[in-house]
Please model this.
Amino acid sequence: MSLPAPQLATAPLSKQLIRRRFDKASQSYQAHNSVQQRIAQALLTMMAGQAQSYQVLLDLGCGPGPDWHQLTRHCQQYIGIDLSAAMLNEHHSRQGNANGHPSWLLQADMECLPLPTDSVDTLYSSMAMQWADSRQRLGEELKRVLKPGANAFISVPLQGSLQPLADIRQAIDNQPQVNPQPQLQDWLDDLSIAGWTIQAVEQRCFIEYFADIKALLHSIKGVGAGANQAAPLTRATLQTLNEKYEQHRTELGLPLKYEVGLLQMRPSS
Ligand SMILES: C[S@@+](CC[C@H](N)C(=O)[O-])C[C@H]1O[C@@H](n2cnc3c(N)ncnc32)[C@H](O)[C@@H]1O
Model:
């Protein structure tokens, strides 16, 4: 496994900020990614129902590689791409010598991939494609690198995610505690314009429960999923947030909802 030189010279500033956010979260990510793991399992199940083995598999926005073991069981060559070098370093150190499995980790922007045209048999991307600036441009770039007839399996967060946190914070001081997410139909429209045929689609809700508001906020920060722009929480705002969130407490704890789209698709011919 090797780490080629970064290719970020022209990345826009917002991507630099996103990259720094995920660099910071790289150490804590695996301690807080239980909902991301449940989502990945749902996507892997969707994938398992379709094909048993792939030659070249691209794991887009692979992070520290939590799905690497399962993915490499079914492919001859694994390519993990991520914007964050620190995430890739975690991925690299956790896989050791990769048991001889040919795996490549590349630091790159998903909207400008350092891969040849028609070079990938299967795309897997869990909870990462929402970070693209343009869904349509991303769709076009992915279509370029996938071979005709290839399969793509993706999961993306949708409108309604990170509730009731987002609404509570908005009501307190009109600040976006989390990034707004599109509806499933927005993804379907933009991917179809980019030249994709959707073969299967499912919208599912995953709920995570927390002992208190601090643990809940800590978990969002731990996976690098906070809002791009939000005023910091003052002590008074945090107290109000806590009081209002407590009204949503269930016997399992404070809920945090993830609405997720699971898609299987192919480049249109
Ligand atoms: C929530 S993590 C998901 C990681 C992993 N796929 C999982 O399911 O746990 C999102 C990942 O997307 C990466 N990412 C964000 N923007 C990106 C971009 N423009 N290009 C490539 N990767 C990006 C982040 O660095 C981060 O590792």
Remarks:
- Residues 15, 18, 22, 33, 36, 40, 61-63, 66, 81-84, 87, 109-110, 126-128, 131, 223 surround S-adenosylmethionine (CB under 6 Å).
- The beta strands are 54-60, 75-82, 103-107, 120-126, 146-157, 196-210, 254-267.
- Confidence is low (pLDDT under 50) at residues 1-11.
- The CA atoms of residues 119 and 242 lie 50 Å apart.
